[in-house]
Design goal:
The structure is a single chain. Helix 2 crosses helix 3 (155-170). The protein has 2 domains: 6-49 and 137-197, no CATH class; 51-133, no CATH class. With 228 residues, the chain is α+β, with helices and mostly antiparallel strands. The protein is 34% helix and 22% strand. The longest helix has 22 residues, at 176-197. A 4-stranded antiparallel β-sheet has the order 1-10-3-4, with no helix packed on it. It has a 4-stranded mixed β-sheet with strand order 2-8-7-5, with no helix packed on it. A hairpin with a 2-residue loop joins strand 3 and strand 4. It contains 6 helices and 10 strands, in the order H-H-E-E-E-E-E-E-E-E-E-E-H-H-H-H.
Length: 228
Amino acid sequence: MALDTWGDLKTAIRRTLSEPTDETSGRFTIEGLLGWANDAKDQLAAVARLSKVSALAFNAGDTFVGLPSDFIELWDAAVEVGGNRSPLRRGRVAVPVDTTNADTPRIRWIQGTSLSFWPKAATAGTVHLLHLYRPADMTTANASAHGLPFGPPDPGQLILRYTVAIAKLEDGDPEYVAWEKRWERGLSEYSVARLRAVPRRMTLQDVWGVYTPDTRPYHPTDFLRGRV
């Protein structure tokens, strides 16, 4: 049985832990179990190779844009100014750069939670980022989904293994060791399956076909359809 939503996960986790039917009683709170489940989801997202394109606007004079809150890893970037797109190349900056001159940004680097670029923007535009991302956290709503792609194994089953392992560890139950090993084995299998499904780092040209603006969708799943 696939465990795609928090409702399904909650029921399966509490049943595995022999918790009572009444959700207001038992050794573990629903919020605590949900927190552990989301921890597992984030660890799976780190190897799931889920990618999308985010469009981030900037103004004249800007030297950076903030990274999306779901950002994991950058695969490619492009800049769009006045309807024209061009690659935003990766650079390594060890010293402060000259920000007196303004032009279309050409070089980018990650600095903390921002994507910095050089030269500073002469006019307003958009940075397009092709990046790996983590799905939004599940909430206490039963229909809230983990948003991870199927491996195999089923990521929902792996979330259950991790959550049960942590719960048993918190409870002082020695069975946590066996559950932890099942989680680690499943995480490794999932990582291999996702690497086979998305075997290489993509570029924006893979998604767009060309850098020139057109009417094609930006989302990488249009490029990968049939592979995952």
